């Protein structure tokens, strides 16, 4: 039960983080200001940190999928 809730939470976080990434050719990220050019020098650092957080959440999501699959296999 706990891994199912964690999977839902990680899925929602992953969707949110992917939508926050800067778009290269438009898309949903432009709705949140991703398409606007900014002159702030720290934007590349923020983008790298967002990439790192997205990768970590993605790995946690993948681990939850594996654990849930193993638990389902052991229960049956």
UniProtKB/TrEMBL annotation:
Which InterPro entries does this entry report, sorted A to Z? SecG
> What would be one Gene Ontology cellular-component term for the protein?
plasma membrane
Keyword hit for 4Fe-4S = no
**Major site of localization recorded for this protein:** membrane
Protein's cellular compartments = Cell membrane
The GO annotation for biological process reads:
intracellular protein transmembrane transport; protein secretion; protein transport by the Sec complex
Kindly state which keywords UniProt assigns to this record, in alphabetical order: Cell membrane, Membrane, Protein transport, Translocation, Transmembrane, Transmembrane helix, Transport
Q: Where are the transmembrane segments?
A: 53-72
What topology does the record note for this protein and the membrane? Multi-pass membrane protein
A Gene Ontology molecular function term of the record: protein-transporting ATPase activity
What would be one Pfam family of this protein? SecG
State whether keyword Cell membrane applies.
yes
Return the similarity comment.
Answer: Belongs to the SecG family.
The job of this chain, per UniProt, is described as:
Involved in protein export. Participates in an early event of protein translocation.
Concerning NCBIfam families, the annotation shows: secG (TIGR00810)
This protein is called: Protein-export membrane protein SecG
Highest classification ranks of the organism: Bacteria, Bacillati, Actinomycetota, Actinomycetes, Kitasatosporales
């Amino acid at each position: 039960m706990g891994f199912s809730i964690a999977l839902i939470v990680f899925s929602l976080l992953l969707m949110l983080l992917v939508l926050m990434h800067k778009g290269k050719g438009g898309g949903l990220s432009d709705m949140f200001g991703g398409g606007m050019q900014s002159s702030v020098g720290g934007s590349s650092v923020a983008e790298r940190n967002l990439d790192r957080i997205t990768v970590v959440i993605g790995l946690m999501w993948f681990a939850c999928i594996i654990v849930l699959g193993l638990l389902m296999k052991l229960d049956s």
